[in-house]
Specification:
Number of domains: 1
Distance between the termini: 49 Å
Order of helices and strands: HHHEHHEHHEEHEHEHE
Largest sheet: 5 strands, parallel
CATH class: Alpha Beta
Radius of gyration: 18 Å
Bound molecules: zinc ion
CATH topology: Rossmann fold
Strand order of the largest sheet: 1-7-6-2-3
Strand content: 5-15%
Structural class: alpha/beta
Number of strands: 7
C-alpha cells in the first residue's frame, strides 16, 4: 500500500464543503457540487461573467465591460459569488480554511485555460500590510501560488504593493469604488525588473466592480508589463 492509500485509510477524503466522505482528495461531494455555481459556457471575455449563448468559443463582451474602464486584456472567473461559492470563499478569507487554495487552483486553472500561455507571470492582488498583519495571510497570494504550481507559471507574490489603506469597498457606488482605488497600487522598485516586458496574470479572490483589478493593472503597466490578464475565483453578479 502506498503512502497515499495508507493516508486514505487513516483519513478518508472529505468534501471540502460539508465534510461528507468523497472518493478523491480536495473535492466536493455530489450534493455540494450541484450547490456550487461554477461558471461554464459563453462568458464575457473581459470579466468572465456568464452570458446568454451557447458557443463558449465565441468572443463576447458584456454591457458593463463596454462602458467601464477595463485596462486589462482578458478576464475569467471560476465561480459566481453566491450560495455555496460564497460560503467557501468567506471561510477561505476569514475562517483560516487555507486548505481551500488547492481545490480552488484546479477550478482557476480550468477557467484560465484561454489565457494560459508560456512565460506568463502570476501576480496576486496585495493586501495593505496593516490588513495582512490582522488577517495573517493574503488569500489572493495563496490562490496565485497554488495556481502557479499547478499550471507551471512563474510566480511573484510581491510584484505589487498596496501603498495606502483604502477602507472597505462595500456600500460604495461604482464610481466611488474606482475613485477610492486610483493609485492605490504600485510595483516596488526592486520588483520592476521582474515585471518589465512580462505578460502578467493578475489574481484575486473576488471581483465586484473591477476597480481593484483596474488600479492594479495600471500599476503593472506603469512598471512596464507587456500585457495584463485577470483571473478571480468568484465574480459578483451585477444585480447581486
Ligand atoms: Zn459536500
Ligand atoms: Zn464583462
Amino acid at each position: 500500500m502506498g503512502l497515499q492509500a495508507v493516508l486514505h485509510v487513516l483519513y478518508p477524503p472529505q468534501c471540502i464543503s460539508c465534510g461528507e466522505p468523497v472518493t478523491s482528495d480536495f473535492g466536493l461531494c455530489a450534493d455540494c457540487w450541484l450547490e456550487t455555481p461554477f461558471i461554464a459556457g459563453l462568458v464575457c471575455d473581459r470579466c468572465g461573467t456568464p452570458l446568454p449563448g451557447t458557443d463558449p468559443g465565441e468572443l463576447a463582451v458584456c454591457d458593463d465591460c463596454m462602458t467601464i474602464a477595463r485596462p486589462w486584456g482578458q478576464g475569467r472567473a471560476a465561480l459566481m459569488y453566491r450560495d455555496n461559492a460564497r460560503s467557501l470563499i468567506l471561510a477561505f478569507k476569514h475562517g483560516d480554511r487555507m486548505d481551500l487554495a488547492r481545490p480552488a487552483a484546479v477550478w482557476l486553472k480550468k477557467s484560465a485555460q484561454p489565457m494560459l500561455r508560456p512565460g506568463l507571470l502570476a501576480v496576486p492582488v496585495p493586501l495593505h500590510w496593516l490588513r495582512l498583519v490582522k488577517r495573517r495571510y493574503n488569500q489572493a497570494a495563496l490562490l496565485s501560488k497554488a495556481l502557479a504550481g499547478l499550471a507551471g507559471l512563474d510566480h511573484c507574490p510581491d510584484a505589487l504593493i498596496r501603498c495606502r489603506t483604502t477602507g472597505t469597498q462595500e456600500g460604495r457606488t461604482r464610481d466611488d469604488r474606482f475613485r477610492n482605488l486610483a493609485d492605490a497600487f504600485r510595483v516596488p522598485k526592486p520588483r520592476e525588473a521582474v515585471v518589465r516586458g512580462r505578460d502578467v496574470l493578475l489574481i484575486d479572490d473576488v471581483m465586484t466592480s473591477g476597480a481593484t483589478f483596474a488600479a492594479a493593472t495600471e500599476a503593472l503597466f506603469q512598471a512596464g508589463a507587456r500585457s495584463v490578464d485577470v483571473l478571480c475565483l468568484a465574480r459578483v453578479a451585477k444585480d447581486g
